[in-house]
Every structure is written in C-alpha cells, then in structure tokens.
Amino acid sequence: MQEDFHYYATYCAAFLAGHTHEESLEICYSAQLVDLCSRSFLRRIGGPLTAATTQLQLELMDARTDMIGLQDITRIWASFHFLPRDLYAEVRGGKRYRNKYRLICGPCGSLAADTVETAKGKGLPAAGIAMHVLADTWAHQYFAGTPSLVINNTYTHFYEILGEGPDRTDRQISFRHSVTLPDDPEESKYTNSVYQSSENHVMNLGHGRAGHLPDYSFARYRYLPAWGGYRELVKDNPSDYMHAFCQMVAALRYLKGDLPAFAPDSFDEDTVKPYEERIRTILTRRQLSASEDWKALGEELSGRPVEAFDPEKYQEEYRSAPEEEKAGTFLGRFIQAAMTQKSMVTNRIYASGNMLAGVSVDLREKGGKGLQDLADLTGQAAESALEDLATQVADTAGPGGGKA
To answer: Taking the model in full, what pTM does it have?
Structure first.
C-alpha cells in the first residue's frame, strides 16, 4: 500500500473507530512513517538503527545477501510489510523451501492478532504501526518479506481484469523496468523489478516482480506465482482493501477499549456501512493515488482539515530532547513500538524453528533498548546457529522457480 491508504484512509478508520481528530492524526502519521523509518532516517535524528521499519532502494542495493544480511532484510520486511499468515503451514519440499514458503504474507493469521495485541496499551504510535501491518497483510498477500526467486517470482501469464460480468475483459499486463516512467493503468503498463536468477537477490524481495499492482486499490488481476505450481491466483484489491479498512476499524476500537477482544477475522462492517458506497467508489477509481479522495472523506467525517504528511514534523523534538527524555517524544514512542513489533515477529519466526529472521528473544519479556538477535542471548552456540541458518538461506532451485 502507499500513502493514500496508510495515511489518509487510516485517518478515516481511526476517526470512525472513535478517536479524536488529533488522535487520528497521530495514528495515521505513525502508520505512514513505517514506510519512511529507514536507517538513513534514524541516522539523521540520532535514533537506534535497530528500529528501522523499512529499507530505501539505495540501502537495499548495498545490502548484504549473505546469511546475516538476509536475516536483517527479513526481520524488517516480514515484521512490517509482509507479515506471515501461517508459520506452520503444511507444504511439500525441503526445509529451505518450506521455511521460505511459511513466510508468505496473508491476512487473518495468528500473527495479525498478535500484532494488534502487541500494540495494546502502548499508545497511538503503536496503534498506527499495527494498522500499517494489518493493511499490508491484505495488499501484499501471496508474497514474502524475504528475497526469494522460488517464492516471489511471477511469469508472463499476468492479466489485468477490467469490468464485470458480460463487460469484463482481461488485458495482458506489460511490465517494464523504467524508474522514470509512471505506471499507465489505461494501457496496463506497469514497472516491476528486473528478473534476477539468483535466489536471494534483493530484486526478488516482496512483490517487486509484480511492481506496484498490489499497492493500487483499483487493481484486479490474475497471475501465476512462482510457488503456486502453475495454479492461477486472482487478486481483487477493491475487495481486499475494503476488508482491510473494516478490520482496521475493529482493531482500533479494540485498542481504544471499546471492544472486548480482537480476533484474526475481526471486522467492523456496521460502523463502516454508512460510508461503504463512498469508500468503494474511492477504491475502484483507476488512479495512481487516491490521497485526495480519502482526504476529502476524512475532512467530511471530522469537520477538520487533514494536514499533509510531513516527515520532518517530529524530528527536531526528538533531536533536541535530552537523552533521558527522548523516549517520551513522539518519535521515541514510535521507535520503542517499532522495536517491540519487530522483536515479537522475529521471536515468533524463530520459535517456529525457522532461522530466516535470525535468532531472537522477546523484547517485551527481556526488556532493553534494542533487538538482541544474537545466539548467545538464547544460550545457543553461535556456531550452531550459523550452521543451521546456512542450510536455510543458501541458493535453492525450489519448486516453481523460473523466469518471467
């Protein structure tokens, strides 16, 4: 997803969930900040680098893809953008392939509920981070937050679905690799990552091989995922995004204390129903950004102007705060919530017997100021941990790999 949903739609969800205008702005700001809180950002403000929730393109181009580098990439992308649906999914294939398959993102899994529960009582920045993660489980499903050709690659069998019923036409998508040309929905021309035959190349991270199609709410398409054994998948973003919105309202009501529980399949359709037609119109409009439409809806809901996202808004407050007071600033609270979320997900992956995100302890139980993904913290010898990891991240020709 992109700013239109993570910022403006999240504002609408927060306000409908009963938050004030000011609270809704903090929540949606935090949700959008997940896409900007890179190590470069953290260096500028003097924050802990372990709190990174994303990686810039230049950072990824320089990223190591040995086993330690892959752990680092996976911790970030699986924790915040490609939350695994089922860490214990049954799948044929060797251990290396199976562990990558189990990182495939999807909504309504146990980790989605864990993400909301982790944010409970942690304040508005934590709520915003949880909303980003929840929303992305719907947009980014079927892809994994770890570099993997055998999981994330796609094929030339990729068609955009236009219209409904007798008016439906399926138009083959033309992918290109230009970073300067904007996507062209009218011609179904979209930019994707360049094919790389190396299993662990960063070009094979997440939905790069499908371009930004998962991030556009209007997009409906059918394609062959690399892991699917040549079985076609149909992705209906307008429906998925509506589910994401209703789930966010339910989660935010729970975090606010208005609902007694949040289950992986919790949705608040009743609260959203008066605005359903308006929201569906926004979601299905063929445009590269729906920010103005969501902004207009948000301002109608609250009667207040929804300010544009400003990445520098809280930076000086954090930079100038004494060390002992940084944790109480907005960015200090965001950083702590980000580290807690990353620690929770990494710990769940590690506890499932999967080493692709590294060795981890639960930050909520152990405390501390940063993730401590080192083998000696768990009592496991470093040599043994690295040997186990090496068998899982080595290049593999797992089921379904192939060139687009």
So the answer is: 0.89
Question: 204-260 pLDDT, tens per residue?
Answer: 999 999 999 999 999 999 999 999 888 999 999 999 999 999 999 999 999 999 999
N-terminal to C-terminal alpha carbon distance within the chain: 24
- Give the pLDDT confidence of 50-87 residue by residue, as tens digits: 999 999 988 988 888 888 889 999 999 999 999 999 99
Q: Say which amino acid occupies 19.
A: H
Distance CA 101, CA 254 (A): 31
Kindly calculate the radius of gyration of the chain based on its CA atoms and give it in whole angstroms: 20
Nearest to 111 by CA among 82, 90, 83, 91: 83
